[in-house]
Amino acid sequence: MALTGPPAAIPGREDQPDRSPAPPPSGDATEPVRQATPAPPSERPAGLASAVTRTRVSTVLAILAISPLMRLAALRYAVPPGLPSRSGCDACGAPVGLTRPWPALGPAARCGHCRARVGQPPATVELAVLAAALLLALAGPPGGALPALIWWLGWTIPAILVDLAVHRLPDRLTVPAAAGTWLLLGVAALDADPGHWLRAVIGGTGLALFFASTALLLGRRGFGLGDAKLALSVGALLGWHGWPVLLFGLVLTFGLSALVSLGLLATRRANWSTHLPFGPFLLLGTTAALLLAT
């Protein structure tokens, strides 16, 4: 039997590549190619995230539920210094309280007897509380400082509304705000670095002394004593998160005050002797600093 080898190459012509299919692998059946599947995510981070979400949602609902209390506080203490607290409608004298909250303590802010407006303008308290609740739910500071911030906002929002109305910060709102904030930060310090609590104490005390010294030395040209009492809690909240946060909060506070003052001067709605309430700027500057820094 003659043996034949591969055909000889023809000069000037390229060999065609071998297009015959590759032989199948040995075995009765070929195994299908298994594609790599991503590993399932860990259940612990998902559970932790859902717990945080539930906590923040419950915080929003709780804050919205106390809106009538905030409106009642703003109604009672929004009176000039030296006058007794307001207890009812200015037009007809009908009592307003938690036993008869609607519609006077609702978003409509109307007396149930004479339909006159009672207290703050309609929906202002509710919008302020809703804004605070949404900010806390979306970007609230983590850790033990969150309850202190919630407590502070619960007392400071009605105090600021009073400051806007009659240019004073009542002690019955600023003192509980400071006392509760310090207490809750002290409880949070049990599970945190003691340096946080030390900074909070130094920040609150130092800022309050600075505001009080301007009130005593400069009189009406300085800050009010109500601002100094509010600074007790402001300095503690900002100082808890660090000295840069405290400085950042003060820069925002004074920057906002300067911008608003220049805007009022430019539009001739105020002059150089006009006294502006400083409480709203403390609230906005503190809240913005805490949300941006944490």
From TrEMBL:
Q: Which domain of life is it from?
A: Bacteria
State one Pfam family annotation.
Answer: Peptidase_A24
Membrane spanning segments where?
125-143, 173-190, 196-218, 230-256, 276-293
Which keywords, in A-to-Z order, does the entry hold? Answer: Membrane, Transmembrane, Transmembrane helix
Record's keyword annotation contains Membrane: yes
Which residues lie within the region annotated Disordered? Answer: 1-51
Every copy of the Prepilin type IV endopeptidase peptidase domain together lies at 154-255
InterPro entries the record matches: Peptidase_A24A_bac, Prepilin_IV_endopep_pep, Prepilin_peptidase/N-MTase
Name the protein family: Belongs to the peptidase A24 family.
Q: Which PANTHER family match?
A: PREPILIN LEADER PEPTIDASE_N-METHYLTRANSFERASE-RELATED, TYPE 4 PREPILIN-LIKE PROTEINS LEADER PEPTIDE-PROCESSING ENZYME
Per its record, how is this protein called by name?
Prepilin type IV endopeptidase peptidase domain-containing protein
Organism annotation: Micromonospora noduli
